[in-house]
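Repro:
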Amino acid sequence: MLRLPGVKESAHTPGNLHAMTSHKTPQTMKPATAAKKLGVYLEATPADFQEGVVSRDELNALQADPPEWLRELRRNGPHPRPVIALKLGISIGGLTRAGVTEALTTEQIDALKVDDPDWLQRERATQAEVRKETARIKAEQEKVEKQATEKSAPVKKSSVKKSVAKKKSARKKTGVKVAPRRARY
């Protein structure tokens, strides 16, 4: 191989092409991220899950065929705040306003549903209003988009023919001879 003076050998030089082989490293994530994606409370997971890293393939395997500990956590808890909020039909902010900061078990969540305290009723009403407003805004946006697409819709052929005919008759009246433009469809 020819070496040029002053040129350092890098990974891109022909002598080092073997350094550029494409070895795919598995995508990994922290246990907290994996627990969040699985919808479980990290502190309730087994120690080996909490201490290691989780690859994308391992996460997919856990989701496809959950082991007993994962099924048990999903069934009975303790549950993380997003799951608690979902089960109660309120927002995570509503949990914070109510002072619910710790993980709750399914039994505790069911007890809250039965007791139906004032704060839970208020937060459910707030959540219902938020959903209603979100739906209204979405419908309004769709209406605006529909109107925009109608305005930019292609002109019908019949209206193009009429405008060409009007231009021809105007040219005849003025006596100006101009080559007519071809209608574009």
